[in-house]
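Can you give me the bound-state structure? Components:
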Amino acid sequence: MQGNGLIWLTLTLPVLGALLQTLLGRKLQDSGSGKRLLGFLAVIPIFLAFVVGVMIAKNLDPSTSSVISSVPWIDIKGLSIPFELRIDTLSMTMVLIITGIGALIHLYATGYMSKEKDYARFFAYLNLFIASMLILVLANNLLLLFVGWEGVGLCSYLLIGFWYEDLANSKAANKAFLVNRVGDWGLTLGLLLIIATVATAPTGFGPKDARLLSYDNIFPVLEHVLRLHPMLATTIGLLLFVGACGKSAQFPLYLWLPDAMAGPTPVSALIHAATMVTSGVVLLSRMHVVYDLSPTASAVVCVVGAFTAMFAAVIAFGQTDIKKVLAYSTVSQLGFMFVACGAGAYWIAMFHVITHAFFKALLFLGSGAVIHSMSHEQDMRNYGKLAKYIPITFGTMMAGYLAISGVPLLSGAVSKEKIIASALETDLAVLPGFNAGQFAGWICLLTALLTAMYMTRMMFLTFGGKKEQWREIPVTTDDHHDSDHDGDDHHALTADHKPHEVPVSMWSPLIILAVLSLGGGWFLDQGERLKEWLSAPTVGPRGTIASVTESLIPVSQLEKISAAAAFGGILLGAFFYWKGLPKREGWNEAEWSPIRRWIRNQYGFDHAMVSAAVDGGNELAVLIDENVDRGAIAGTGVGLGKLSEFTFSILNRLQSGMVRMYALCMLAGVLGIGLLVVYVTMGGHK
Amino acid sequence: MSSVPYLSILIWLPILAGLGLAFIPKLGAGIPKGLASLVALATLIVTGTITALFLTGDAGFSLQQQLNWIPNMGISYFVGVDSMAAWMMLLTAFLALIAVLISKPKERDAQFFGLLLCLEGTLFGIFSSLDLVLFYVFFELSLVPVALMILGWGSGDKGKVALRYVATLFAGSLLMLVGMAILASRANVVDGLPTFNALKLQELVDTKGLWANSWPLQALAFWGFMVAFLVKSPVVPMHRWLNDTYEDAPIGAVVAGVVLKVGTFGMFRFCLPLFPDACRVYAPVVVALGVVGILYGGILAIIQKTPGRVMGFSTISHVGFILVGLFSLNHAGMMGAAFQQFNHGIAAAAVFVLLSFLAERTPAKNLSELGGLKKSMPIFSTLFLIAMLTNLGLPFTGGFIGEFLSLVGAYMAGFTGANGLSVIWVYLAAFGAILSAGYMLYLYQRMFYGKKQETAEFKDLTLHETLIGGTFAILILVLGILPMTLLHSMEPKIDALGRPFQMTHSASGSAAPAGSGATARLVSNSSAPVGEVKLP
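Here's the bound-state model for the whole set.
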């Protein structure tokens, strides 16, 4: 099978890595050299997987896709689902991101986690995550995708709660899993509806029994059936999108992602920025045939994406924890990707997945370096003037910052501008009387300005300013969870603290990512390289094509306008924050403007949702428990019970003891059979 | 081969050995446990061999043995085994052996192990009876050992628990007698002879119109059986006997693992073949009951304060999925139900076995007294994690396959409008996955996360315990990743059971599709029963 069977190697290597960590970890992790060996054993499989991925991708003809089949997983009459992988440009793009960025982050983590006692457990989870994520993107059917989907969710859960002694981490982990399960509700139902649609479709559209859920089988069937039934396309599209909202943290299911920052920072970079959270985008790109045939679903995707982008960008202004700023920024950037999906420009969404993986992984790892050098303090109000102390971190983070802000030619700018253009020009996400694409495009443009602003704020508060805040302000340590060390050797910031640059294992990935953040977007865009590479799996059938009025700004001018938005945002941010931490955003939150406090708390949305779910759910459960389970049912139960107890008590008076009582019951049974005999005999006389 | 009455040996060997153990006055320490493990191991080997016969997939009954009992009533001692029963018996033998191995009764251990063996024997009887009266006898007999075990070795208000257990289940099963009477009398009408032989009755239903012109009787008999099975399953609102029974881990493992499964097993064995019209007509009712159970159990599991009670409500929720799949009355749904019926035995027992290890270390039952176990017991926490994952239905664990197939079945039935089902039920049932994650994660958090002085010194699992727990972990993963052994083995049986329900349109999508054009997919199935049956 043209050497593509190598793909199994890509998949096996991380699993092997996880097994090695589990088996050897306990013995090795107590010594420094043992840890180095474990770290090596964790990085190497991912790196090798990347090399294999490159080899496969190099020989891949972009216009083809191949299916690598294997033994059946579920194979019953009418529903056969084998283990099978799909190699095409979409899946290989993701494989390269996952293993490439993954290897860099693994390398970084060997340094970042070097003082951690539970070293092997961390890398076992991390390797397992890579394996699950690869299953997700490589699967050739939706159920195998679901395996990866839940697998990455599990790893995310385990890694968010990695420092299990702090209950807050456990709660964040539970929240992540549960909110994702809400999304999975939609995904499951979408899956079932697809099964039902395909299974009952008229004949002539490929095999019906075998491989019912395989992409190569369902796409032609769906295309045919959904073209006739747009409502069905819309329903499937919306249900799948609910799943995507969960995994990719879109409104209103974004709630778990900010809390997920409780995990170690490399986890935030890998799982909660670069890879797992883009699964929703991958899902929509993979299933684009559904959305291509439903303008309504596409419009909803566009609007939700745009709304989330803006909603989260504003919240970022109220955050003082550096990782929270980046978390909301991630939510916001994911919104951008969904706008592109809704506009029908899936390759552009994937483009942003790639560039975002570069610069957001960089920013998270950079923030990890900052946190590392600041004795695990995450609050930016304790930073200031750090550029002087940690120049490599500062320099590389600048690259990521400029890229996300949209400075022309840098990777973020290229993909973001394409997203806005695709939204303004779309003829897919257009409903009668409402051009959702253009609406989303305008919001994205405004959000681009906000992005540059809040990122400038973050950079100035951290690296700029005139004061070294940590020398003056007493540190409150109650609300940070990123404690790499076990509680006892945790040392707090003091006035004579001297931030130190991170070791080479940590800064070398930063440099590679910085180069990619600066030039990666430009490189991929040269000669429409990426567009052509991704066109086969992402361009599909179109349903009705809406006639669209030109947007107010001609798209040809967009390059200048988004550059203006980027520089405008940077200048505005610099104007407010060039002196460092303003007093109105200081430690005394009573001095904050009410609006900033309001956005800091996510407009109260998180609180409302969580208390509705947790308290409301609890109250409902207690209500049922008291009134139904121990009320009505027990009441009837007691009623019946009373009756039986009464009967039994009479029997008990005659003969005590359970066994005899039971024997009597049996006697009653025998009597019953006797009656039955009579009944049967009489029946015979009919 | 067939001359050796393997099934009778399986049934009576543990019962006789159990009675022997219970009545032999004094045995040295460790001897009862040793003897019991030997007997349980022997039954495991025999059931394993029997199950191996069915690996190739066979719809029929093997190892049949029939002895006259009350010939002129058509009652006989009639046993036989099909693929589904074989798997359930294997599960019974496996869990019985595990229960013997993990039990450490504080007193009267000979009696305890004796009762356990008796329970095993009666369960074998239930799974292999092909005569209704024989089935009923074993069905009732199986109550005795459990009730006595609760009385003798339970905790809390054990008298009340045992009474509630016996009273509820006994009351439930009385109605089954009525159903049996109706069946036998109808046989008398159409065939001239009463019979309680299940195979004969099925033949009469299929070929001689047992239910011709007697719809009310069929409905009545159906509900007679169903009430007995629903109480056993259990289904809301007849579930309250369950939770107290679950407080003691070794008993809980067996009860959750197999005793409950008798309910859904009975539906497969008797309700589907003997009351096909009633199954169709009342499918929406049973599916609704299943969905109510899924949600009700899931919601209440979250607020329970002991792990045993969490598992009790969790069981109610999982059984709901079996009912939903079973009464989808199509291939995928019934396969899912059959799979989940076996799988949940492993999944629930895994948790109870692990809890019994914990009980060795602390008398604390309340979750508020636990916490921080991840630090002191890393192996235990990993094994518990895997048990948790199958209970919340993560793919690649056994818990996923059965519930997914059940939902596929129910969805297909609803989508095609078969038997008056609706996809709404699936939309609701799918919430069960959110709830199961909720109560399992919350349970895990309260047991393992955080920091606690009291649990910091607990010893991690011993090698012996790790091996037992590890066996469950491996089974859970094997069931999830390689489910085909089990599915393939049961498929012909399920196919045969489902045949009466496949009408013009196959809900599993395998038969010829209805009509042409996509609109034809909405062709609805007539929910009217076939034949000359008259509906009210």
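A couple of observations. Chain B has one domain: 6-510. Chain B touches chain A through 89 residues (CB under 8 Å).
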